[in-house]
């Protein structure tokens, strides 16, 4: 019966036919490796006979019966030798002894199929130890030239029996050989299944070996320890895991071979982390050594070369074997191996010698130092002996002591005792310094006491007594009465060095109590030292103390200390604390401290908050993930609450606090957007990264607000900015959580807040304009154009909404709020390219046109001009906008342009006024529409108030005179009202000559003309404006002539009107007239008594000098000084 071997372990039939002359030269016993069977065995083939042909491939069976079963072959072979019947067990023993393993395997399989199981074969194939490698070579598919040359047959080699080896858990008896039948259709599938099983088991073995190798490498004895063991032979090096596993395997193998099965089982249970059936479990690519018995026998002789044992490896092809692998090469290879070993040993020996040399050098240096010390001691001893020899004079002790008393040595005092007791060790030096420093410090000049700081700190650091250390640190903090900046820096540097050396526990126990004692010191310099110390020591304190005691100390100083510089240092130290705090529960306390410090009345404290505290607090909230989920929303909620509560009076100071805090949070918010972007992982620092433009970001208030500092480096920021702009321009914001929050929540909320601000609040407009400017500049031009401007209505939408919602009476439309000026000054001015300037000009022109045509209040346009006019860069741009209004076809627009000149003139230089403003106003003053001409009067008045050029003033004066003296304006009530209002506004600040020669005479004429006004309403309007103008001008210095000729007559005319129209104003006017008359009279008397006043002044000065000299001569106490002024009784 033919059987199918599932393992493709032998050569193919073609290979067998190509090598018909190959013989088996030498066989090795599975136990001791002895070559060949014993002589005389009738079942061993002759040396020159062909071995049995082993047809073991998976396709060897055929229906024609060409193949021969292993048992039949064996039986026919034996039949030719002996006619006696041989037992099956004898055949099996002979096959195993001659290493015909595969033949024995087929024999075993056929016996199993026949129902006749042979115990010898079953035990052999059930024991995995019979199939372990006996070579030191790694299990690679390499040709192993281990066959020896056969005597009498040169050039012929023994055939290498190849065998695939199964894993330990898949021994031969565990495979179902019965399922391999003669069915050729199933052979392929069965072979694939077996190979897959073998592959899986091989992978598991490799993984286990790698894990063992890693564990062995991790537990490797350090090289320095190995050196120590080598240098000290009497100390045995601890066993390594690899060595332990190898010895365990050999011990278990010895127990099994010598029938100690129970001991082997117990030993396996105690080492359950090792597989004793598989040598590869010991380690990866580790050759198996000989068994314990052979190791014991060879312990006195050199170990055999690794080439002495052949590796019966798997899958070696005879074609891969080298052709010159003959027995004569073995000695040469052994010599080469010995040479390699010798080189390796010599290298190790050199390393050992180098290590021994380094040890000897160290010992040499140590001995040299000891010799130097001994030489000094010997010299001192010799000198002492010499001194004793010189003093060996026969003197009585009493006489000798009396004689030595004349040396004037003093040991009775503290200092004498210290001097006579020389320190002989490091510890005694520290003790001596601890005793002496408290007495040295008070006697050192105040200006030089900082020289003692190193000595005090070193002693306090190394002194063994806690009480003495406390005293020294107390001296340190009280070393200088009022330390200046340099001295405080020196003390702080020492404290940090002390803290770095002694550790957090001693800093808490020794340094912090000193700070606590000084927290309420009367000198602010001492309290300043405490505040700065808390920040400097923060990195070296325990985290629990840092977030509890130190934080409470600083909070107390922030709320109670009166000195600005102390609170400033407290805020900076709080910022440092926030950089090291890690307790999320302290977030609310940090937020309240931020608001408290922002409300400080001192500007330097608020500046420190923006420079240090807010950036550090923002960095902490970024780490907590609450920057844009808690911190910024809290500030926005407070702003909204402030606007809700301040409908009738907005607290602008609180609004400034919250908005400035938001402004300081813009850089960390942008950094969070960059760090959480989808492209952050793609940012690369290598390659050509363009430098960041200088004007890309607003100038930071401190380095902590620099986006590059927050990100980590300018190179990383530059790489992120490139990806940021590309993402916004081409890919959008999908999946970008932080930026989506900015676009969908932050911006809409800010726009809503802006819409609720009254445009007349100049401070609020300025604060929000500055916020949006920094916001847009930080987030970039692409973001501003695509996201921010989307939320502000474009000009055409503003015009459409204005026509529907704004009229002359309503005044509550979109253009009457702060949206227009904030958009114009905060968003449209972020970038100064030509296209950006054109956009701004077009927006202002559209707003001016829209407001004028709809008769809406001009407050929003005025706010825009005021905010932009504060920056000279925009003067030309604003003049361009106004010139558009000057030449506009609508009189309403021209009137608006004329009124806007009044706001612009104050900030424009006189050259632009002469070249651009005055010509435009002259053009408008001759406009066909009287309303346009009247609208130019306030601008002319402002020019008279601010300009100093005489030619310019004369032109303006002539134009105003034409308004007053031209007959066509005599009945223009609006023109007279505007002129009187302008005179009252600019008169106090105008040139005195212009006021005396032009303003007051024309006011007199207008008051006189108003007495004869028939229309009562016009008369009261003029009278009211005149009253305001005269009230403002009454504070000015007016010459007597003008007072008598124009000012008093004008007041009397005005009083005549008020007597009839407004009696309450008449009383005020009467008092003003009386006061002016008294001034005129007093001036006349002062002129008459001019000479007398000079003489009296001299007399008065003389008396004053005498009195002061008498006061200076008094050296008595305060009580005596007070008695000088008491009445005599």
From TrEMBL:
Alphabetical UniProt keywords: Coiled coil
PROSITE patterns to which the protein is assigned, alphabetical: HEAT_REPEAT (PS50077), LISH (PS50896)
Record's compositionally biased regions (Low complexity): 62-74
Coiled coil: 350-377
Residue ranges with Polar residues bias: 1-10
Record field: compositional bias (Basic and acidic residues): 16-30
Tagged with keyword Oxidoreductase: no
One GO term describing the cellular component: recycling endosome
Region (Disordered): 1-74, 215-236
Name of this protein: Uncharacterized protein
Species of provenance: Salarias fasciatus
Gene designation per UniProt: relch
């Amino acid at each position: 019966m033919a059987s199918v071997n599932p393992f493709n372990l032998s050569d193919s039939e073609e290979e067998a036919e190509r090598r018909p002359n190959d013989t088996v030269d030498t066989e090795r016993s599975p136990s001791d490796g002895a070559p060949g069977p014993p002589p005389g065995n009738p079942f061993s083939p002759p040396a020159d006979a062909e071995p049995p042909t082993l047809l073991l491939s998976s396709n060897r069976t055929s229906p024609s019966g060409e193949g021969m079963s292993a048992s039949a072959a064996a039986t026919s072979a034996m039949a030719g030798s002996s006619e006696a019947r041989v037992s099956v067990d004898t055949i099996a023993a002979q096959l195993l002894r001659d290493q015909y393993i595969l033949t024995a395997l087929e024999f075993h399989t056929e016996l199993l199929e026949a129902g006749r199981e042979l115990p010898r074969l079953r035990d052999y194939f059930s024991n995995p130890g019979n199939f372990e490698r006996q070579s030191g070579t790694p299990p690679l598919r390499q040709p192993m030239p281990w066959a020896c040359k056969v005597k009498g047959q040169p050039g012929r080699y023994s055939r290498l029996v190849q065998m695939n080896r199964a894993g330990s858990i898949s021994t031969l008896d565990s495979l179902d050989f019965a399922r391999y039948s003669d069915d050729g259709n199933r052979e392929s599938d069965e072979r694939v299944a077996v190979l897959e099983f073998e592959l899986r088991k091989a992978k598991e073995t490799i993984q286990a070996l790698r894990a063992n190798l890693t564990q062995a490498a991790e537990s490797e004895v350090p090289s320095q320890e190995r050196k120590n063991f080598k240098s000290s032979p009497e100390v045995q090096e601890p066993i390594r895991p690899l060595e332990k596993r190898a010895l365990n395997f050999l011990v278990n193998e010895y127990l099994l071979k010598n029938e100690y099965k129970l001991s082997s089982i117990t030993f396996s249970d105690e080492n359950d982390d090792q597989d004793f059936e598989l040598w590869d479990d010991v380690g990866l690519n580790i050759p198996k050594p000989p068994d314990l018995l052979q190791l014991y026998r060879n312990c006195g002789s050199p170990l055999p070369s690794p080439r002495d044992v052949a590796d019966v490896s798997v899958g070696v092809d005879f074609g891969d074997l080298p052709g010159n692998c003959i027995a004569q090469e073995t000695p040469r290879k052994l010599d080469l191996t010995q040479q390699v070993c010798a080189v390796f040993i010599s290298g190790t020996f050199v390393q050992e010698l180098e290590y021994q040399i380094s040890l000897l050098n160290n010992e040499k240096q140590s001995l040299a130092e000891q010799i130097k010390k001994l030489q000094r001691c010997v010299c001192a001893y010799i000198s002492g002996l010499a001194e004793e020899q010189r003093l060996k004079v026969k003197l009585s002790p009493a006489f000798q002591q009396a004689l030595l008393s004349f040396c004037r040595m003093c040991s009775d005092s503290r200092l004498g005792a210290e001097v006579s007791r020389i320190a002989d060790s490091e510890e005694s030096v520290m003790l001596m310094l601890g005793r002496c420093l408290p007495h040295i410090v008070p006697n050192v000049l105040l200006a030089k006491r900082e020289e003692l700081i190193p000595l005090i700190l070193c002693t306090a650091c190394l002194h063994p007594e806690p009480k003495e250390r406390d005293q020294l640190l107390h001296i340190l903090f009280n070393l200088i009465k009022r330390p200046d900046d340099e001295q405080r820096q020196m003390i702080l540097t020492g404290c940090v060095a002390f803290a770095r050396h002694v550790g957090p526990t001693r800093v808490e126990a020794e340094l912090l109590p000193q700070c606590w004692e000084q927290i309420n010191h009367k000198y602010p310099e001492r309290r300043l030292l405490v505040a700065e110390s808390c920040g400097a020591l923060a990195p070296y304190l325990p985290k629990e103390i840092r977030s509890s005691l130190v934080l409470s100390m600083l909070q107390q100083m922030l709320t109670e200390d009166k000195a600005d510089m102390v609170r400033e240092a407290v805020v900076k130290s709080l910022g440092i604390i926030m950089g090291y705090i890690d307790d999320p529960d302290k977030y609310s306390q940090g937020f309240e401290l931020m608001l408290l410090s922002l409300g400080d009345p001192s500007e330097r404290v608020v500046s420190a908050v923006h420079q240090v505290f807010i950036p550090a607090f923002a960095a902490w909230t970024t780490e907590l993930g609450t920057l844009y989920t808690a911190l910024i929303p809290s500030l926005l909620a407070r702003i909204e609450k402030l606007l809700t509560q301040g409908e009738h009076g907005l607290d602008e100071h609180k609004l400034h606090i919250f908005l400035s805090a938001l402004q300081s949070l813009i850089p960390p918010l942008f950094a969070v957007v960059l760090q959480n972007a989808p492209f952050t992982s793609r940012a690369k620092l290598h390659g050509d990264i363009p430098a960041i433009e200088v004007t890309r970001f607003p100038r930071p208030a401190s380095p902590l607000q620099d986006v590059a500092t927050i990100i980590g480096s300018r190179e990383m920021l530059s790489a992120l900015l490139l990806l940021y702009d590309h993402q916004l321009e081409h890919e959008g914001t999908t999946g970008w959580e932080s930026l989506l929050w900015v676009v969908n929540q932050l911006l809409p909320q800010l726009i809503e807040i802006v819409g609720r601000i009254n445009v007349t609040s100049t401070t609020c407009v300025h604060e929000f304009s500055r916020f949006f400017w920094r916001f847009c500049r930080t987030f970039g031009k692409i973001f501003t154009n695509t996201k921010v401007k989307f939320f502000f209505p474009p000009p055409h939408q503003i015009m459409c909404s204005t026509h529907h919602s704004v009229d002359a009476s309503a005044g509550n439309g979109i253009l009457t709020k702060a949206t227009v000026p904030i958009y114009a000054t905060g968003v449209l001015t972020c970038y100064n390219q030509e296209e950006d300037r054109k956009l701004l000009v077009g927006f202002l022109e559209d707003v001016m046109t829209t407001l004028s045509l709809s008769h809406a209040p001009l407050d929003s346009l005025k706010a825009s001009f005021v905010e932009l006019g504060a920056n000279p860069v925009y003067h030309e741009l604003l003049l361009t906008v106004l010139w558009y209004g000057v030449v506009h076809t609508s009189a309403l627009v021209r009137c608006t342009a004329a009124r806007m000149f009044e706001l612009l003139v104050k900030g424009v230089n006189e050259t632009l006024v002469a070249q651009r403003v005055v010509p435009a106003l002259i053009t408008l003053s001759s406009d066909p529409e009287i309303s346009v001409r009247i609208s130019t009067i306030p601008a002319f008045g402002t020019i008279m108030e601010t300009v100093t050029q005489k030619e310019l003033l004369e032109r303006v004066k002539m134009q105003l005179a034409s308004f007053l003296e031209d007959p066509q304006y005599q009945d223009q009530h609006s023109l007279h009202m505007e002129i009187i209002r302008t005179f009252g506004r600019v008169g106090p600040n105008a040139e005195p000559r212009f006021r005396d020669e032009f303003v007051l005479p024309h006011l007199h004429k207008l008051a006189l003309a108003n007495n004869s006004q028939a229309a009562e309403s016009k008369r009261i309007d003029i009278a009211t404006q005149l009253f305001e103008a005269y009230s403002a001008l009454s504070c000015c210095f007016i010459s007597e002539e003008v007072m008598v000729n124009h000012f008093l007559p004008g007041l009397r005319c005005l009083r005549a009107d008020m007597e009839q129209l407004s009696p309450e104003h008449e009383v005020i006017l009467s008092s003003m007239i009386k006061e002016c008359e008294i001034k005129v009279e007093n001036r006349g008397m002062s002129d008459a008594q001019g000479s007398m006043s000079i003489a009296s002044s001299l007399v008065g000065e003389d008396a004053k000098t005498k009195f002061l000299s008498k006061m200076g001569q008094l050296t008595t106490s305060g009580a005596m000084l007070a008695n000088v002024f008491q009445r005599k009784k």
